Amino acid sequence: MNPKKHRPQILNFTTKALAHFKHKVSLQGKENKIKLGVKKMGCNGYSYFFDFVNKPNKSDVTITVDELNFLIPPDSVEILKGSQVDYAIEGLNQGVRFINPNVSAVCGCGESFTVEPNPETSTTNGLKKK
Q1: N or C: which end of the chain has fewer CB within 10 A?
Q2: Domains within the chain, CATH numbers bracketed
Q3: Helices (H), 15-121
Q4: 75 phi and psi, to 5 degrees?
Q5: Is 129 left (phi over 0), alpha (psi -120 to 50) or beta?
Q6: CA–CA distance, 102 with 30 (Å, rounded to integer)
Q7: Pick from 100, 77, 70, 116: which is nearest to 128 by CA?
Q8: How confident is the model at residue 119 (pLDDT cuts 50, 70, 90)?
Q9: C-alpha–C-alpha distance, residues 25 and 122, integer Å
């Protein structure tokens, strides 16, 4: 499957991100699904998270891309909608990067962000170490 042609409504994944998640899932054992979303925290409102789990919650939205199962909590769907998930290596830092068109502001340290009720075309490159 060509991830560039895959355009789910909620998230898009780069080839590097899919390779990263495939590698991480191969090391997990039973926790072979990726839970990905946002949670309230930080100085600016929200922060991205991901974790490896073995089964979804009943309310999770499931996206399957290139044989990987991504689980998204329902309260994260609107905030993530249209985002691209990438994996970047920048100097000594490496991690999953979210390019989110719904973000209206990012805190100075880059760890948290704000979403306006009707977001327009702002973007952010939040880098999470994993």
Answers
A1: N
A2: 11-129 (2.60.300.12)
A3: 15-26, 77-80
A4: -75, -5
A5: beta
A6: 33
A7: 100
A8: very low
A9: 31
CB 65 within 8 A of CB 29: no
Give SS3 for 89: strand
CA distances from 47 to 29, 74, 112, 127 (A): 27, 16, 5, 10
- The contacts of residue 23 (CB under 8 Å, 6+ apart) are none
- Output the six-digit token pair for 102: 């719904």
**β 33-40/46-53 pair status:** antiparallel
Place of tokens 């009707």: 118
For 77, list phi and psi in degrees, rounded to 5: -60, -50
Alpha carbon distance 84, 116 (integer Å): 19
Please state, rounded to an integer, the average pLDDT across all residues of the chain. Answer: 82
Q: What is the pLDDT of residues 48-105, one digit of tens each?
A: 899 999 999 999 999 999 999 999 999 999 999 999 999 999 888 899 988 888 888 7
The confidence band for 4, taking pLDDT boundaries of 50, 70 and 90, is low
Report the 3 state secondary structure along 59-82: CCEEEEECCEEEEECHHHHHHHCC
Rounded Cα distance between 124 and 112, Å, is 10
